[in-house]
Amino acid sequence: QVHLQESGPGLVKPSQTLSLTCAVSGGSITTNSYYWAWIRQPPGKGLEWIGGITYSGTTYNRPPLKSRTSISRDTSKNQFTLQLSSVTPEDTAVYYCARERIGTSTYDYWGQGIQVTVSS
């Protein structure tokens, strides 16, 4: 059973950088054929893919957010991180990390989610 757990601040001020970490247990983030994603859900809206990192370390980012997004990993800690810079209130959302088996377009494991509010 793979377990994902998000952590980070619940409140970020506008123009600052949001940093979230997803700690993974029960499976390695370097296991072949898996992709580790960040997804968010703004209030009253649907799920929005932000980006992610593959088992080999290749990153993919949603084009509208690409200039503000940085995704990295620490294989020694079996975790991956999201940094979103220059945040605005429109970045307020529940942020999730999740795992996808590459080629399936299906996330099979999710973290519980973390509420992040951007406000001064």
Strand % is over 45%
The whole-angstrom Rg is 13 Å
The arrangement of helices and strands along the chain is EEEEEEEEEEE
Residues in helices, as a percent range? under 10%
Supply the number of helical segments.
0
Number of strands: 11
As residue ranges, the low-confidence spans are none
User: Distance between the terminal alpha carbons, to the nearest Å?
Assistant: 39 Å
* Helix-and-strand structural type: mainly beta
- State mean pLDDT (0 to 100 scale): 96
- Net shape: globular
Major sheet description: 7 strands, mixed
How would you summarize what this structure contains?
This protein has 120 residues and is mostly beta strands. The chain has strands at 3-7, 11-12, 18-25, 34-41, 48-54, 59-61, 69-74, 79-84, 93-101, 107-110, 114-118. Strands 2, 4, 5, 6, 9, 10 and 11 form a 7-stranded mixed beta sheet that branches.
Description:
It is built from no helices and 11 strands. The chain is mainly β. The strands form 2 sheets. Strands 2, 4, 5, 6, 9, 10 and 11 form a 7-stranded mixed beta sheet that branches. Strands 1-3-8-7 form a 4-stranded antiparallel beta sheet, with no helix packed on it. A hairpin with a 4-residue loop joins strand 7 and strand 8 (79-84). It is globular, with a radius of gyration of 13 Å. It starts with a strand and ends with a strand. The model has no long low-confidence stretch (mean pLDDT 96).
